[in-house]
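We emphasize that the prediction below concerns an isolated chain of 349 residues; any contacts that depend on oligomerization or on bound cofactors are therefore not represented. The input was used exactly as deposited, without trimming of termini.
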Amino acid sequence: MAEPTIMEVPATNYRSLFIFFGYLALAVFFTLTCCHTIYTRYQERQKRNDWATPQKQKPFFLFSFLSALSLGMTWYHMIRLFIWSYHNWEASPSGAFWSATEMSLVVRIGLWLKDTYVFQEAWETVSVSPTRVWWSGQIFGWTIGWSLVLGITGRRYGIPRVWVYMLLAQAVSVSFAANLYFAAVAVSRKANPKDGIFAWSPPLLAELIPVAFSLLDTVAVPIYAYKKEFMWVLMAPHIVIFIPCVLRPIGALPPASKAQGDQTTRRYAVSIKWVAAASILLLAHFTVMMLREVGTDVPYGEVAQILFDTIYVHPACSSVSWDVIMCTVSGIAWVYVHDFNTSHMVGGR
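Result of the prediction step, given as a token string:
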């Protein structure tokens, strides 16, 4: 009788491990960077005691709480996704091939990461059907609108490196990064209305083109699911959406008048309203596609149940769906603390 063959233990896949754990380390670094800005500014306001009223501290605590809640709700399911993906790999032919071989967990995780495109598979999973896209498509709408808010308020409140918040949104979750940013705004003072930066605005096309491109690309994402071009289509809006939030004037600006500042505020307020309207149209498009899938004769209560059930069909769907839910809660909170006044939301007086 032949002796069983002893398989050689494969080498540790350091490249895959470095990419995965490097991604996690960057997510932590981005979080700490944002928290440092918030902490420093909060301490400064506490030291000077220059809050306009005691109630002005409440938005800070509200958005700090929402950021923690967003992180918990989205990353509970993200961790479930990693575990699900690993076990799915173990059951695959590649994972089963190594199942009888004695090796360390680190080596086994390296093999899983080498054979599995975790994030690509996650986004393809949430883009594969209209009911799933009804959820995942909304996160693009929230991100596009928020990118404008980042650029506008970042300039007017003098918040440094606002692009880090956008990186954090893509590395962790949009709702977590947005709530951290709203907390940063809550502890920051607006620029003097006579400062040139308060009245400055970038060329309209510099903001309009990235927003329009991202909206159109969002519609295209589900079309390319499980096709070789998918990652290119998916990554395109993730890249161009940085443009509105990094626009800055070149060189020093002359002082501005109150009228100039008010004019810029009105332009910003109109821009936000138009982007909000476009996001609603985007949701309407996904709703029509979803209703075609489930059937237009299905009662509304059953449609709502189908959408609710979709949240939990897969860990990736759960993470993205809860990100959408928390973005909605945070958006409502942002509007509420600014008394439903669009001009106040963009840092106007």
